[in-house]
Amino acid sequence: MSLNTILNTATSGMMAAQTGMRVVSDNIANVNTAGYVRKTISQSNLVSNGMGVGVNIDAIKRATDRFLQSASLNAASDAGRASALSSALDNAQELFGDPSAKTNFFSMLDDVFSAFSQAADEPSSSLLRAQALTKVEDFLGESSRVTAGLSSLGKDADTKISADVDRVNVLLKQIDELNADITRAKTTGVDATGSENIQSGLIDELSSLMNVQVSQRANGGVLIRSTEGMSLAGEGAAVIKYEQSPTANGFLTVTSANSGGQASPLYISSGEIKGLLELRNTELPALSDQLGEFVTRATEELNRASNANSSVPAPATMTGRDTGLDATTALTGFTGKTTIALTNSAGVIQRRIEVDFSAGSMTVDGVAGPAFTPANFLTQLNSALGADGQATFSNGALSLSANGGLGVAIADDPTNPSTKAGKGFSHFFGMNDIVRQNGYSPYETGMTTASPHGFTPGEEITLRLTDIEGGRIRDVKVTVPAGGTMQDMLNALNSRSDGAGQYGTFALDSKGALSFGSNSASPVTLSVVEDGTQRGAGGPSLSQLFGLGPSERSTRASGYTVDAAMNSNPARLPFAKLDLTAAAGTSALAVGDARGALALAKAGDSAVNFSSAGGVGAATSSVLRYGADFAGSIARKAAAAESKKDATASVKVEVDTQRQSHEGVNLDEELINLTTYQQAFNASARLIQATKDMYDVLVNII
To answer: DSSP state, 388?
Structure first.
């Protein structure tokens, strides 16, 4: 071996050792730097004509493990999703209050029934009547507050999703730009680990927001793809957008750099954004929907009891609720018998009209009266009332009035009561409701497939169909058909070409409630993007009348108030029952009768048919029992989310610890490496010195 070869070999060794010491010094300097990954050098021996001629530094690399990195990213995504769900559900539970405390929301309904029970002991007490109404008002006010709180949580989720999506777009752009720096450095043989560390930190942050797939590019840098393989960064930065709607489910779209501006649905299965989407589209609307069902049935049972009874004296005017229907449709479908009585101030019946809906006939003061059909019922009823009263129907509401200081009382036949959609005549129209509403819940219209739908042909409703992962399948625009029956409307909604029939089926049940069921084993959910329909002039839209979509159903618990007339005059409370067996000339409404108050006190124990709401199937239960089960389910759901958050956080800590153990700087190890490189440097330097001495000897000889 020539002296030049020896000198070059020693020089390469010195340079390699110097590079090693520089790498070690950088590692030691960054021992406490968050996100720093330990660097190593890759070296190989130089060979010429089969003979070793030194050492070459191939690359300076980061000590990474792609399997640990992948596990860490997945754990971060799972933890982000669980944390978002847990935080919001915990806040939602706080809105209802501690289920074990006597001051929680559900205990307020117990207070309502207790107040009516106390009033039944002394039905003439104005104070006890007022207290009962106050308890009802408190319960309804609290239901409005909780509904507003859940709605606020949903809006907060919307805001957070938008902010997270903006951050994701910034991260994707930065990751993509760093690819160019890394590729340039690797191509020129420069240390690229600084840029790679920064890029790795950005990917870690990205994974906490949404789960992604990360792969290495052959020329340096990374390629970021969605779970479905769509390019997000590495081939140009994609742009993600949150498609937000005030009434329909929100979803994500992505426009890749090479898509020509065409947006595609983006599906993610984990990360903070996924958790927020679940909250916004599923969890919070489900809670609001079930709350609405609970409050609706509770008020319905109170109104059932109040409509079966009367105040003393009876009110001069009864005005029902807005049914959303025209008079003929509203009056069609009744069976059984009811009695409309006009009483004087002493409770003595002055005119008694017995209505037999099954036979289509009326009896006036025991004498056969006019026959009727749903179309001419009001005309015939006014004929039966004569000069003592009148009946009108306006804006979907029935009104009955008495003249000459008389009052109106309604009572069903005890053996063959009137009924439609599970309600008596007075209850269906809300003639003597304690609780009034500004909506149409529980959406049991009493309509059949033969009923006129009442909507104007050509009007449109846009429905959004969403898959189990929350991704939009498609938006469907349904046009009100020229055919005028509900069957025609169902056919339009269920059309496979122009409706939702490819994904699910709309059906009208025996009580006239419209529901949508998925056709496939994988559930398809429905929400309403826009509804331009209207039933009659100033009437409800299709989604309002039937409660279509989570937006309509999730706000209904905030639409209840105590009847203004009863609130201003507690004597209007229906604490007495009209005695249909009272002899002529005797009082049929007695002062001090507490049967109505007792019925109100026991309303919470009646068996009630609850509709499917918030992911909970239809059930038969008492209002109080349903409330207790609902309170327990909220607590269990919040506890389960908290447990999931703790579990995913523990997994993340464990995986990050393992990753840090592999990627982090170990001072003992680095000091050993420093000593090794220092000795190698000294050895190479001595070899150079020896070669120099040999050169000097040869020169002196010459």
So the answer is: G
554, pLDDT greater than 80: yes
Q: Which residues lie below 8 Å from residue 506, measured CB to CB, with a gap of 6+?
A: 490, 493, 494, 500, 514, 515, 516
C-alpha–C-alpha distance, residues 588 and 229, integer Å? 77
Which of 143, 264, 210 shows the shortest CA–CA distance to 556? Answer: 143
Q: What is the DSSP letter of 57?
A: E
Q: DSSP 3-state assignment of 52?
A: strand
> Count of alpha carbons within 13 Å of 43, Cβ hemisphere only?
19
Angle at 282 between CA 278 and CA 286, to 5 degrees: 145
Report which of 626, 621, 570, 624 is spatially closest to residue 601, judged by C-alpha positions.
624
Provide φ and ψ at 516, rounded to 5°. -120, 130
C-alpha dist (Å) from residue 173 to 165, 292, 377: 12, 44, 70
DSSP 8-state symbol, 387? G
Comparison of pLDDT for 692 and 426, the residue scoring more = 426
The pTM of the full predicted model, rounded to 2 decimals, is: 0.90
- The neighbour count for residue 664, using CB atoms within 10 Å, is 16
Per-residue buried b or exposed e for 60-84, using 16+ beta carbons within 10 Å of the residue's own CB: bbeebeeebbebbbbbbbbbbbbbb
Strands 504-508 and 514-518: antiparallel
Q: What is the pLDDT of residue 1?
A: 56
Give the length of the chain.
702
Angle, helices 126-187 vs 107-121, to 10°: value is 180
Provide the pLDDT confidence category of residue 157 given band limits of 50, 70 and 90: very high
Exposure pattern of 229-258 as b/e (b: 16+ CB <10 Å)?
ebbbbbbebbbbbbeebebbbbbbbbebbe
- Phi then psi for residue 411, to 5 deg, are -145, 135
Measured in degrees and rounded to the nearest 5, phi and psi for residue 221 equal 95, -170
Give exposure, 317-355, as e/b (b: 16+ Cβ within 10 Å): ebbbbbbbbbbbbbbbbbebbbbbbbbbeebebbbbbbb
Give the Cα separation of 514 and 527 in Å (integer): 14
Backbone angles phi, psi at 525, to 5 degrees: -100, 155
Tokens found for residue 509: 């049940």
* Residue 121 CB neighbour total at 10 angstroms: 12
Close Cβ partners of 102 (under 8 Å, ≥ 6 residues apart): none
Q: What is the pLDDT of residue 92?
A: 95
For strand 560-562 and strand 435-437, is the pairing parallel, antiparallel, or unpaired?
A: antiparallel
Rounded (10°) CA dihedral 179, 180, 185, 188: 130
> How far, in Å, CA of 650 to CA of 658, rounded?
12
CB atoms within 10 A of CB 209: 24
pLDDT at position 623 over 60: yes
Q: Which residue has the tokens 């559930």?
A: 523
Between 59 and 327, name the one with better pLDDT: 327
**281 has a pLDDT exceeding 90:** yes
Average pLDDT over residues 162-168: 97
And the tokens for 494?
């269920």
Percentage of the chain modeled with pLDDT above 70: 100
Question: What's the rounded mean pLDDT across residues 365-381?
Answer: 96
Nearest CA to 5 among 49, 43, 42? Answer: 49
Q: Give φ, ψ of 222 to 5 degrees.
A: -130, 160
Check if the beta carbon of residue 348 is closer than 8 Å to that of residue 586.
Answer: yes
The one-letter amino acid code at 10 reads A
With a cut of 60, say whether residue 491 has pLDDT above it: yes
690 HSE (CA, 13 A, CB side):
12
